Amino acid sequence: MKKLMVLLLVVLLWNCEEQKTPKYLETGTYRAVLDVQDGEKLPFIFEVESKDKLKIFNAEETIEVDEVEYRNDSVYITTPVFEGYIVAKISNEESLRGFYVKESLNRVVPFKAEGHENQRFQINSKPSQDVTGTWETVFSKDIEGDEYVAKGIFKQAGSKVTGTFRTTTGDYRYLEGVIDGDTMKLSTFDGAHAFLFTAKVSDSTMEGTFYSGNHWKEPFVAKRNADFELPSANDLTFLKEGYDSLDFSFPDEDGNMVSLSDERFNNKVVIVQIMGTWCPNCLDESKYYTKYYQANAERGLEIVALAFEYAKTEDKAFASIKRLRDKLDIAYPILLAQYGTSDKAKAQEKLPMLNHVLSYPTSIFIDKTGKVRKIHTGFNGPATGEKYEEFKTEFKSFVGGLLVE
Questions:
Q1: Engineered SS bond to 118: which of 29, 78, 147, 315, CB 3.0-4.6 Å?
Q2: For the chain, how long is the longest CA-to-CA vector?
Q3: In the chain, domain spans
Q4: In the structure, what pLDDT confidence band is assigned to residue 5 with cuts at 50, 70 and 90?
Q5: How far apart are CA 350 and CA 356, in angstroms?
Q6: What are phi and psi of 264, to 5 degrees?
Q7: Cα→Cα distances 231→148, 151, 382, Å
Q8: What are the tens digits of pLDDT across the range 127-144?
Q9: 290: number of CA atoms within 13 Å, CB side?
């Protein structure tokens, strides 16, 4: 049914009647809004620089978009790497109505945008609270099987709030929003994820709801705790008893089966990256790994990525891998470990020596003798600020030590 909805939307938005002169977006700033659940609106800001280039803004993050296509009176906007796209009719040069679509997941979210607007959230009241600081957070509290902890890190200047939630598996991206009276509102949009957080805030507590697109929501509670820390990312995933090495064999985009026993990995330090092209934290990690690999491959370093893709077909999965590789200029191999689902339990079946696959991404560090020396769960990217800097320092020290052994 949802696939049929996507097809109908495309038909409605791409008028197949006699070819008309295409309409183009006017340059300038736009305020976009996605309809989530409970009547809530998820806003974000983008700027059209030219008819085929625009930028999306989330706090300190700027996403440059150069895949903008016009068909009659509609525009198709696809963000880098990810498959999600916006398709909208141009009512006039500064007004858009359409949908945010992720075809492989059969998700369609209503979208609209207006030009000459740059205020992300509307503010009705002066802030009565200041959320600056660290918040010990629990999502889906007391819901069996769904509860998990996070660390909220926020900065507030006047009514404006920026920051993120760190979890044991990664971070919730660059969040930007406001304090309106005693209500906090934060959002982000990157083409893969559309997140909205709303919460009532007191001096030391907050209680709210997290929305992901229009397909998911969950409650969260938080309390101030400057000393709160998440469990170590190096202790969450490990080899089962009786194992000290990793083994796999998966195809690359040319159909060649690649294994850790291949000659290219012999007597090398190897980082195995469990990831997906649909995953923003994986994208952040891949950007970092790509630069590090370019600088250190000649020292005896190899990286191999295992992609777990939700694309419905093998061809589409490899197309997503190629898109990621080309966009980031990735020189290390990306193998297709799974397609049709990104289910972590299914992923663990492909790597049975692990206790579980808890997160995309997960990195497995292997020394020159083939022994697993460390497994790092998740990735805290640039949105986490100090934590990202700490990760880079630890990574360089640990991998550098393996390279000189």
A1: 29
A2: 69
A3: 2-115, 133-224, 249-403
A4: low
A5: 10
A6: -60, -20
A7: 11, 11, 19
A8: 999 999 999 999 999 999
A9: 15
Q: Tens of pLDDT along 300-327?
A: 999 999 999 999 999 999 999 999 999 9
Task: Return the residue matching tokens 């507590």.
Answer: 205
SS3 track for the chain: CHHHHHHHHHHHHCCCCCCCCCCCCCCEEEEEEEECCCCCEEEEEEEEEECCEEEEEECCEEEEECEEEEECCEEEEECCCCCCEEEEEEEECCEEEEEEEEHHHCEEEEEEEEECCCCCCCCCCCCCCCCCEEEEEEECCCCCCCCEEEEEEEEEECCEEEEEEEECCEECCCEEEEEECCEEEEEEECCCCEEEEEEEECCCEEEEEEEECCCEEEEEEEEECCCCCCCCCCCCCCECCCCCCCCCEEECCCCCEEECCCHHHCCCEEEEEEECCCCHHHHHHHHHHHHHHHHHHHHCEEEEEEEECCCCCHHHHHHHHHHHHHHHCCCCCEEEEECCCCCHHHHHHHCCCECCCCCCCEEEEECCCCCEEEEEECCCCHHHCHHHHHHHHHHHHHHHHHHCC
C-alpha distances out from residue 187 to 57, 244, 288, Å: 11, 42, 25
Mean pLDDT across the chain? 93
- CATH topology for 133-224 is Lipocalin (2.40.128)
* Interatomic CA distance for residues 269 and 79, integer angstroms: 34
Domain 2-115: give its CATH architecture.
Beta Barrel (2.40)
CATH number of 249-403: 3.40.30.10
